[in-house]
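Researcher: I'm preparing a figure for a lab meeting and need a structural model of a single chain. I don't have an experimental structure, so a prediction will have to do for now. The sequence is pasted below. Please return the structure as tokens so I can convert it later.
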Amino acid sequence: MKKRISLLLALALLLSLGSAALAEGTGDSHTYTDPVNDHTSLEQTITTTIPDNKLTWYLEIPSDITINQGGYNGRVSLGNVKITVDSGELSDKQKIEAALTYDGVLTDTDNTDIKINYLLSDKNAEPEYEETAMETGKAYVVGTKTKTAETYNAPDAWVIEDTWDAAESGDYAGTVVYSSKLVETDA
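Model: Understood. Here is the structure written out token by token.
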């Protein structure tokens, strides 16, 4: 009889530990179901969050400049652009490029029929950028930003000396157009 009572007590203890283990497994992300039919089923919820990694940036362009009369010595740097990532992150295979285009024409502010030509230096040209002008109407990369580096290349603006000599007096103005784009690379 003592053996039966010990066996029943051991069995009762085992059952109580089993239900405690089952109760311990229930919670917010688990559901215990169908204990009546001696069938145990647990459900687990799996969740994830995908962050909004939309890449946005802004392009800061240099302030306005004045080209002083004086041939080669009248050269003036346009100044560097600056690319700043506002939200998101560049991957290892992405870069942002800033480019400029120009038409090479300064127009008299009082008489739009009077124009003089100006040039921008191509600092990437070999052997010396001073002698090489950027082609008008063509986009030239003047800034690049990758995940780990930034490079900027500010061209110089100038008017050829013969053009200065032939120019009528007056105030002239022109524009340089900047743009930027995201580029996928093979890196």
